[in-house]
Amino acid sequence: MSVSTNGLKRGMTLDLDGILFQVVEFQHVKPGKGGAFVRTKLRNLKTGAVLDRTFNAGVNVGLAIVERKDMQYLYRDGEDLVLMDTDTYDQHHVPASVVGDAANYLTEGSNAIVAMHQGNAIGVELPASVILRVARTDPGVKGDRVSGALKPATLETGLNVHVPLFVEEGDHIKVDTRSGEYLTREK
Question: Measured between alpha carbons, how far apart are the two ends of the chain, in Å?
Fold first, then answer.
């Protein structure tokens, strides 16, 4: 299957010479002299590297069919994470290299959207924020309530974040999955 470079959209997955790329940015350019072209930024889905590539306008490029499935994280098996398709109950072993930093936010039973191409996982998408339990942190010093003061905390997944002084071990906090920052304490 192919798509014209005039029809590119952000987030599309392209198959260029057998390598999968995701469109990060694109810009149609019509210079005063010469033919129009499309300037793109593409992210290699295997390595994560971003490259600039220019195509002539109207040229067809390979479009990869990517299926997004709702999956539940079950457990870690060596270097793989085992996720279960919530529709078919099939279990998929997804390499940690594919999951990437998303592994820092997955706890047993949590849900994620897994991008699949020809039966293989190529990426894991998380919600904008997740709720995690604080496993370890220093106690806040009484009277030390400087506005905006932060202390380090280790969460149940092993992720280290900076939290306000009033957060204690065992508290549940909401963390932004895009930046890894503390958002709020949950009840």
Answer: 49
- Assign residue 124 a region (left: φ > 0; alpha: ψ between -120 and 50; beta: otherwise): beta
C-alpha to C-alpha distance for 62 and 53, rounded to whole angstroms: 14
| 97 Cβ neighbours under 8 A, 6+ residues apart | none
Q: Identify any residues that bridge with 120 across adjacent strands, giving them in sequence order.
A: 117
Best-predicted range by mean pLDDT (24-28, 97-101, 165-169): 24-28
Q: Look up tokens 């129009």; give the residue.
A: 36
Q: What are phi and psi of 186, to 5 degrees?
A: -105, 150
Question: Per the structure block, which two tokens stand in for 22?
Answer: 């995701």
Residues 174, 106: Cα–Cα separation, whole Å: 13
DSSP SS3 for 106: coil
> d(Cα 9, Cα 26) in Å, to the nearest integer?
7
Q: Which of 17, 72, 70 is nearest to 46 (CA)?
A: 17
Q: What is the pLDDT of residues 29-70, one digit of tens each?
A: 999 888 999 999 998 887 778 999 999 999 999 999 889 999
> Beta strand pairing status for 50-56 and 60-62?
unpaired
Q: What is the pTM assigned to this prediction?
A: 0.73
Phi, psi at 182, each rounded to 5° = -65, 135
